[in-house]
Automatic annotation (TrEMBL):
Full protein name: 1,3-beta-glucan synthase
Annotated TM spans: 907-929, 964-982, 988-1009
InterPro entries, per the entry: FKS1-like_dom1, Glyco_trans_48_dom, Vta1/CALS_N_sf
Domain 1,3-beta-glucan synthase component FKS1-like, chain residue ranges per copy: 345-452
Length: 1057
C-alpha cells in the first residue's frame, strides 16, 4: 500500500511539475506546481505565486509547502467550487492528493490554523535570516555600480534574480499569514502576530517594489533600480494625468495603488467600466506618448516638472485628427466648441478616453469611423457627468442585470456581433464614404539636405579620411561582411536627415506577427538526413564554411572537430542551434536582428552622455566599454524602443507543451526588452453551459475580448489584437523571416526624422525601407528570386515613389506613423478573401486618408525569400490571387476616382495592370500557337510563306517568326538587369546576368509568367484566393513527380498539352 501511495505521489508531482515554459509575474519562469494551474481559474495569478513559493521551499521545509498548497487549494475552491472549468478537477484532485500524503507522512491529527500561522511566522524569520534580506538590496546596488567598470554582468543578473525570488517568497508568506488570520475569530487571531513581526513584514513588503510587474514605465509601483522614472519628461507626463479640479471626486470604494495618486484614467475606468489591465496598458501608452513629445521640445525642470502645453496640444491633435475630420465631413460639431478654449487637462481627458475606447475595440478597430462615433457620444456623456460634479456610472455602460459597468459588454460586444455577422457574407463595411479629395500642388517633393556639421567636426572627419591606412589584411574575407560594409559606407554619402539626440528622437516599436513557424532548429532537425544522406547541418556547413570555422573558434573547438564532439556539451548544443537558426528563416534570427535597435540606442545614448559629461569636465573621453550595463542608457533605450511579437497561438502552444513555446520563452530570457502578445482561450461555465472567453495578453496585461478575434484573415487579425501593446510615435512592421544589422540600426534615428520632412502636400505617413534578400546563396532558384525581389525593392520602389508618387505598402519593413494609422483602421485590413494581400491595403488606406508614402534607400533590413521551386510557385500564386481580389475591391475603385490621370495610369501599371498585362501576354502566346497550328495543318501557312519569299516581304516573314517566344522571359528580366547596372556597375552586371543565363533563368521567369497568369485569371473568374503557406525552410529533399503534378497540373501541364 505504501508503495502504491509513493507511486501515486510521484505520478501526480510529475504531472504538476511539467514545465510549460511560462514566464512568471516577476519575470521568473513558472515551473513545478505553479505551471499546472488551469487557465480557467480566471484570477490564477495569486495561486501561481503561492504554488511557486511552495515549490521553492519544498526541500527546505515541506510543512510550510503543505500550508501554502492548502491555501492555494482553498483559493481555487472559491473561484470554481463545482470544478466545472477545464482542468480544474484534475488540478484540485492532484493537489489534494499531495496534501493528504504529506499529512499522512509528516503530521498526525487535525489541522490547526493557529499552529500553521505560528509555523509560517517562524519560517518567515528563518528564511529572512538565511538569505540576509537586509543586505541583499545594498549588495545588488553596489554590484550594479561596479559592474560598469568590471563588466561582471553574470554576477549582477544572478544577484538580481536571487533578490527578486526571495522578496517574492516573503511577499507570499506575508500574504498567506494575513489571509489565514482572517479565517480565525478575532479572539483567536489576537496576539498571534506581534507588533514587531507586523512592522518587519510591512518593511519587507515595501522592499518588493520591483517585484510588482510592469511593462516599460513603473507607474503603479515605486522603483529605485529603473532610471526611466528619474527622467523629468516621464515624471511630467505622469503628473499631467493626475486628478484636476474639474473632475468629480471618486467614491472611497475605488482603490488606488500607493505608488501614485488618482488620475483621470481612474475616473474614466469608474464611469465607463473599462477593464483594469486595459486601463493600465493605455495609461502607460499615453504617458509614453506625452513623455516623448515633451522630450522633443526640451526637458522640463527637474524640480516638480510640468508638461508643456505644446506637447499636450501636439498629442491631442495627432490622436484626434481623424475624429475632427469625421466631424467636418458629416458635418457635425465636435464635443468641444473650440480647441483654442480647451484646457490641457480637458485635452488629455479626451485623449485618454479615445485610447481606452480604442484599446478595447477589438475587431471594431478596423472601422475607425465607428470608433469616432463611439467616442463622440461617450465624450458627451462624460461632459454631462462632469457638469453635474458627481462621479457616477455612465448609463450607456451599465449592465442592467447586475448594475455593474462594462464598456466591453454594453458597447463593444453588440458591435462585434454585427461585424462577425457581416464578415460571414462579405467585406467589413465602413460607416461612411471616405471624403473625396484631390491633391492640388506639387507632384515632386523638394528634399532638404541635412544640416551642415560644425566646421571643427568637418575638419576632424577630413583628417580621419586622409590619414587612415588601408590594408588588404583588414578587408573581411566573408562576402556578406564585405557587402554590409560596402552598403554602410556608401549610405553615409546619401541624403539623410541629421539625427536628433536619443533623448529627443521619435520613439518607435517593432511589430512582428508569428503563428507556428520555426523558432529555433532542434538538434534532431539539424541531424536528420534526406534520401541522399545530406543533413541540414551538413548543408549549412558547406554553404557557410568560413562562418562555421568562426563558430567553432568562438566556442573553443578545433576547426577539424567532428560534429559529434559538440553533442557532449549542452551549452555547445544550444549555441549550435542558435548558429543554425541565425542562418535560416526563423523567429530567433528576426528577434536577434530587431534587438540590435536597442543595442544601438544604448550605445548612442551612452556616448552622448559621456560626451556631455566630458565637455563639462574638460575631458575628451570616448570610452564605450560597459554601455550595455549603464542604467541611464538602458532606460533611455526602453523609453524609445519596444519590440512586440504577436504569437497568436502561444497560449495554446504552452498548454500543449509544444517546443515552439519553450523556444519563445528562451528568447524572452535572452532578450530583456522582448515582448510576446498572444490570444488566451479560457473555458468558463455560465448558466450550466461551457463557453470560451478570449483574452489578449502581454505578460502582465490581460484584456478580455468580445469574442473570437479571428473573424477575417489570420495575419491582420493577429496584428490587430496585439497592436494595443505597441508604444511610440512609429511602428515598423517586420515579418518573422527578416533580419537586421547593427550598423543599419545606428541610422534609425535619421530615418524617423523623415516624418518631419517636406515631401509634398500631405505629411508623411509611411516610410518605405529598402530590403536585402539574404537567401540568394542557397540555390540557383533562390538567386533568381532574390535578384527579382531586389530589383523591385530598389529600382522599382524608387520609381514608384519618385516621380510616379504611387508607392504603396508591399509588406515589411515599412515604418508607419503609429498614431495616424491606429486612429484610421490599423496597419492592415482583415476582410476574408478580398484582403488576402492584407499589407497593400494599408498603403491604399493611407493614401485615401491623405497620407504620404516615401521610400528611403540609405537604410536596409534583411529579408528571406522562398528558395525552392514549389515554395516560389505558392508565393507567386498567393500574390497573383491577391491582385485578382484587388481588382474587385472598393479601395482600387476609390483610388482610381481620386487620382489625376497620370497618377491613375501609373498606379494601374504598377499594381493590377502588371498582372493583367502578364495575363494578356500569355493569352497572346496561346492564340499565336493555336494560329500557327491552324496555318500548318491547313496548308495556308506554306502558301503565305511562299508568297513572302517571292515578294521578298520581310515584314510578313517577321510576323511568322517564332523566336519572340523565347524573348518573353528575357523581357521580364529587363528591370533586374538595369538594377544590376545601377547597383553593381556595368561589368559586374554583365557577369551576373551571364551567369544567370547559363543557369537557365529565362526558363524560370517564363515559367513564373504561367504561374501568375493562372492564379490571377482564376481569381478574376471564380474568386477564392487564399493564403498559401510556403514553408520558408531550406529545401534539402527531392520532390516526387506526383506532388509536382498536383501543384502544376492546372496551371502548366494541362495548358501545355
Amino acid at each position: 500500500m505504501e508503495r502504491a501511495e509513493t507511486n501515486w505521489e510521484r505520478l501526480v508531482r510529475a504531472a504538476l511539475r511539467s514545465d510549460r515554459g511560462r514566464a512568471g509575474t516577476y519575470g521568473i519562469p513558472v515551473t513545478g506546481i505553479a505551471g499546472a494551474v488551469p487557465t480557467c481559474l480566471g484570477n490564477n495569478v495569486h495561486i501561481e505565486e503561492i504554488l511557486r513559493a511552495a515549490d521553492e521551499i519544498q526541500d527546505e521545509d515541506p510543512r510550510i509547502a503543505r500550508i501554502l498548497c492548502e491555501h492555494a487549494y482553498s483559493l481555487a475552491q472559491k473561484l470554481d467550487p463545482n470544478s466545472e472549468g477545464r482542468g480544474v478537477l484534475q488540478f484540485k484532485t492532484g493537489l489534494m492528493s499531495v496534501i493528504r500524503q504529506k499529512l499522512a507522512k509528516k503530521e498526525v491529527g487535525a489541522i490547526d490554523r493557529s499552529q500553521d500561522i505560528a509555523r509560517l511566522l517562524e519560517f518567515y524569520k528563518r528564511y529572512r535570516e538565511k538569505n540576509k534580506v537586509d543586505e541583499l538590496r545594498e549588495e545588488e546596488k553596489r554590484l550594479r555600480e561596479s559592474v560598469i567598470y568590471t563588466g561582471n554582468l553574470g554576477e549582477l543578473e544572478r544577484k538580481s534574480i536571487l533578490r527578486k525570488r526571495v522578496h517574492a517568497t516573503l511577499r507570499v508568506l506575508g500574504t498567506v499569514v494575513q489571509d489565514l488570520t482572517k479565517e480565525l475569530s478575532p479572539d483567536a487571531a489576537s496576539g498571534l502576530i506581534s507588533e514587531e513581526e507586523k512592522r518587519m513584514m510591512e518593511k519587507d513588503a515595501e522592499m518588493t517594489e520591483d517585484v510588482v510587474a510592469y511593462n516599460i514605465i513603473p507607474i503603479d509601483c515605486p522603483t529605485t533600480t529603473n532610471d526611466i522614472v528619474s527622467f523629468s519628461e516621464v515624471r511630467a507626463a505622469i503628473s499631467a494625468l493626475q486628478y484636476f479640479r474639474g473632475l468629480p471626486r471618486l467614491p472611497s470604494s475605488v482603490t488606488i495603488p500607493e505608488a501614485r495618486n488618482a488620475d483621470m484614467m481612474d475616473f474614466l475606468q469608474y464611469v465607463f467600466g473599462f477593464q483594469k489591465d486595459s486601463v493600465s496598458n493605455q495609461r502607460e501608452n499615453v504617458v509614453h506618448l506625452l513623455a516623448n513629445e515633451q522630450s522633443r521640445l526640451g526637458k522640463p525642470s527637474e524640480n516638480e516638472p510640468k508638461i508643456d502645453d505644446h506637447a499636450v496640444r501636439g498629442v491631442f491633435y495627432k490622436c484626434l485628427d481623424n475624429y475632427i475630420k469625421w466631424c467636418e465631413y458629416l458635418p457635425i460639431r465636435p464635443v468641444w466648441s473650440s480647441t483654442n478654449d480647451l484646457e490641457k487637462e480637458r485635452m488629455l481627458l479626451y485623449v485618454c478616453l479615445y485610447f481606452l475606447i480604442w484599446g478595447e475595440g477589438a475587431n471594431v478597430r478596423f472601422l475607425p469611423e465607428c470608433i469616432c462615433y463611439i467616442f463622440h457620444h461617450m465624450a458627451r456623456e462624460m461632459d454631462e457627468i462632469m457638469r453635474e460634479q458627481t462621479a457616477k456610472q455612465a448609463a450607456s455602460c451599465v449592465v442592467t442585470a447586475t448594475g455593474e459597468t462594462s464598456f466591453l459588454d454594453q458597447v463593444v460586444s453588440p458591435l462585434y456581433g454585427i461585424v462577425a455577422a457581416v464578415s460571414t457574407y462579405g467585406n467589413l463595411t465602413e460607416w461612411d464614404e471616405i471624403r473625396r479629395s484631390r491633391a492640388n500642388g506639387r507632384l515632386f517633393a523638394n528634399i532638404r539636405w541635412p544640416k551642415e556639421p560644425h566646421m571643427i567636426e568637418m575638419i576632424k572627419r577630413l583628417h580621419s579620411l586622409l590619414t587612415i591606412k588601408e590594408s588588404a589584411a583588414s578587408v573581411p574575407k566573408n562576402l556578406e561582411a564585405r557587402r554590409r560594409l560596402q552598403f554602410f559606407t556608401n549610405s553615409l554619402f546619401m541624403r539623410m536627415p541629421a539625427a536628433k539626440p536619443v533623448s529627443e528622437m521619435l520613439s518607435f516599436s517593432v511589430f512582428t506577427p508569428y503563428y507556428s513557424e520555426t523558432v529555433l532548429y532542434t538538434l534532431a532537425e539539424l541531424q536528420v538526413k534526406n534520401e541522399d544522406g545530406i543533413s541540414l547541418l551538413f548543408y549549412l556547413q558547406k554553404i557557410f564554411p568560413d562562418e562555421w570555422k568562426n563558430f567553432l573558434y568562438r566556442i573553443g573547438r578545433d576547426e577539424n572537430s567532428e560534429d559529434s564532439e559538440l553533442f557532449d556539451s549542452p551549452n555547445d548544443i544550444l549555441e549550435l542551434r542558435f548558429w543554425a537558426s541565425y542562418r535560416g528563416q526563423t523567429l530567433a534570427r528576426t528577434v536577434r536582428g530587431m534587438m540590435y535597435y536597442r543595442k544601438a540606442l544604448m550605445l548612442q545614448s551612452y556616448i552622448e552622455k559621456i560626451q556631455s559629461e566630458a565637455a563639462l569636465n574638460g575631458n575628451a573621453s570616448t570610452e564605450t566599454q560597459g554601455f550595455e550595463l549603464s542604467p541611464y542608457a538602458r532606460a533611455q533605450a526602453d523609453l524609445k524602443f519596444t519590440y512586440v511579437v504577436t504569437c497568436q497561438i502561444y497560449g495554446k502552444q504552452k498548454a500543449e507543451g509544444k517546443p515552439q513555446a519553450a523556444d519563445i520563452a528562451l528568447l524572452m530570457q535572452r532578450n530583456e526588452a522582448f515582448r510576446v502578445a498572444f490570444i488566451d482561450e479560457v473555458e468558463m461555465i455560465k448558466n450550466g453551459k461551457t463557453t470560451t472567453e478570449y483574452y489578449s495578453k502581454l505578460e502582465i496585461y490581460s484584456i478580455k475580448l468580445p469574442g473570437q478575434p479571428k473573424l477575417g484573415e489570420g495575419k491582420p487579425e493577429n496584428q490587430n489584437h496585439a497592436i494595443v501593446f505597441t508604444r511610440g510615435n512609429a511602428v515598423q512592421t517586420i515579418d518573422m523571416n527578416q533580419d537586421n544589422y547593427f550598423e543599419e540600426a545606428l541610422k534609425m534615428r535619421n530615418l524617423l526624422e523623415e516624418f518631419h520632412g517636406d515631401y509634398g502636400l500631405h505629411k508623411v505617413s509611411i516610410l518605405g525601407v529598402r530590403e536585402h534578400v539574404f537567401t540568394g546563396s542557397v540555390s540557383s532558384l533562390a538567386l533568381f528570386m532574390s535578384n527579382q525581389e531586389t530589383s523591385f525593392v530598389t529600382l522599382g520602389q524608387r520609381v514608384l515613389c519618385n516621380p510616379l508618387k504611387v508607392r504603396m505598402h508591399y509588406g515589411h519593413p515599412d515604418v508607419f506613423d503609429r498614431v495616424f494609422h491606429i486612429t484610421r483602421g490599423g496597419i492592415s485590413k482583415a476582410s476574408r478573401v478580398i484582403n488576402i494581400s492584407e499589407d497593400i491595403y494599408a498603403g491604399f488606406n493611407s493614401t485615401l486618408r491623405q497620407g504620404n508614402i516615401t521610400h528611403h534607400e540609405y537604410i536596409q533590413v534583411g529579408k528571406g525569400r522562398d528558395v525552392g521551386l514549389n515554395q516560389i510557385a505558392l508565393f507567386e500564386g498567393k500574390v497573383a490571387g491577391g491582385n485578382g481580389e484587388q481588382v474587385l475591391s472598393r479601395d482600387v475603385y476609390r483610388l482610381g476616382q481620386l487620382f489625376d490621370f497620370f497618377r491613375m495610369m501609373s498606379f494601374y501599371v504598377t499594381t493590377v495592370g502588371f498582372y493583367f498585362c502578364t495575363m494578356l501576354t500569355v493569352l497572346t502566346v496561346y492564340i499565336f500557337l493555336y494560329g500557327k497550328t491552324y496555318l500548318a495543318l491547313s496548308g495556308i501557312g506554306e502558301s503565305i510563306q511562299t508568297r513572302a519569299d517571292v515578294l521578298d516581304n520581310t515584314a510578313l516573314n517577321a510576323a511568322l517568326n517564332t523566336q519572340f517566344l523565347f524573348q518573353i522571359g528575357m523581357v521580364t528580366a529587363v528591370p533586374m538587369i538595369l538594377g544590376f547596372i545601377l547597383e553593381q556597375g556595368f561589368l559586374s552586371a554583365v557577369v551576373s546576368f551571364t551567369t544567370m543565363q547559363m543557369q537557365l533563368c529565362s526558363v524560370f521567369f517564363t515559367f513564373s509568367l504561367g504561374t501568375r497568369t493562372h492564379y490571377f485569371g482564376r481569381t478574376i473568374l471564380h474568386g477564392g484566393a487564399k493564403y498559401r503557406a510556403t514553408g520558408r525552410g531550406f529545401v534539402v529533399r527531392h520532390i516526387k513527380f506526383a506532388e509536382n503534378y498536383r501543384l502544376y497540373s492546372r496551371s502548366h501541364f494541362v495548358k501545355g498539352c
